[in-house]
User: What shape does this take?
Amino acid sequence: LATTQIAADSLGITNPAARSWEIAAYSLTVGTFILPAGRWGDILGHKRMFVIGFIWFGLWSILAGLSVYVHPIFFDFCRGMQGIGPAILLPNGIAILGTLYPPSPRKDMAFAMFGSVAPGGAVVGTVFASIFAQFAWWPWAYWAMAIACFVIAVVAWGVIPSCPSKDDNANLVLRLDGLGSLFGVGGLVLVNVAWNQGSSIGWTTPYTYVLLIIGLGFLGVFAFIESRAAYPLVPRVYYSFQFLLVLRAQTPLLTSAQYVPCAISGLAAAVTTGILMSRIRHAYIMLVALLCFTAGVTLFATVPIEQIYWGQTFVSMIVTPWGMDMSFPAGTLILSAAMPREHQGLAASLVSTVVNYSISLGLGFAGTVESNVEPGETLKGFRAALYMGIGLASLGVAVATLFAFITRPRKSVWNSGCMSRYS
Assistant: This one.
């Protein structure tokens, strides 16, 4: 995110909607390939897939940096392929925790701390990427990431305990649900590309709505296949960063530094959530998280350009991480408790798919809104996109309220059987 403007200028990308593909391509593949990646881990082993994810992430990070010598489209392609790495990592990392720990306060805290890594890691990564972009060369942000990925892959192979997958004599292709994966991933990709391209080149271009129609058709086929399968698969940060970079004309490093409170607030939110999840219903935590999301995006959507950082900007940096670091562990644990141990990867996939796919699809929605504002009115375009975020967050509050007060707690179907010494 920190290198978006510098990399786009270096590659000759001037269209704001086209620039968003640097983020959208990555989030697109993270959100879509998470869907089958959890199943791969359930069958092939979560530790093995976790290490493969880091290796894949590292390889495509190298190529993303080398794209400076090629073409902007190749850079976007590399960003998309790079996203498959985290798509493999997320559900399998969560599944490792879900497999090792039975439902308990200890498991609640483990999931909360897993969620707390997101804001802290984002801030650290943004700061180092800004340093490389401003004082060295922006491709080094990707090459440094590759080095870190390879080191972590080696360490992970040595320290993570192995947990054998559930034995099953069924055909491997059948267990992986290859046909369902094909139509599910294909449908999600086509719908997402249609929305992001629609904001870039306009919905009057025939292939944008053709892709949308085909994508929806793929998802319909996917639903039909899954209903009969033996082994079924069952954007605020972007615009806030651009607001500070473009409208306030700040450097990437200064903007990154202003996100530091997110890491501190996120850690506090994660610890608090870990404590609360063993005391109150997860549905109530989810409701509070959505209220924090709504408050945070509202504060930033209405901030005046000339206002000092310590006004609404700083407060939004404190409030918003509570939405992220309360909703993720709560949502993950709700599904984890409802799924048996051998399907923890699938449970993690469902939550992570919604989170990451919505980032990319949300950028497409926001880009469509922004592109339909008066040309040259950058501030109005940014605010319009953020106002859409307020509407989506408010819808989330309404859904979370219904879920909290209509549903009843369900008994966990988790069963022990792996690495009992960790529980």
Q: What stands out?
A: The CA atoms of residues 63 and 78 lie 6 Å apart. Confidence is low (pLDDT under 50) at residues 419-423.
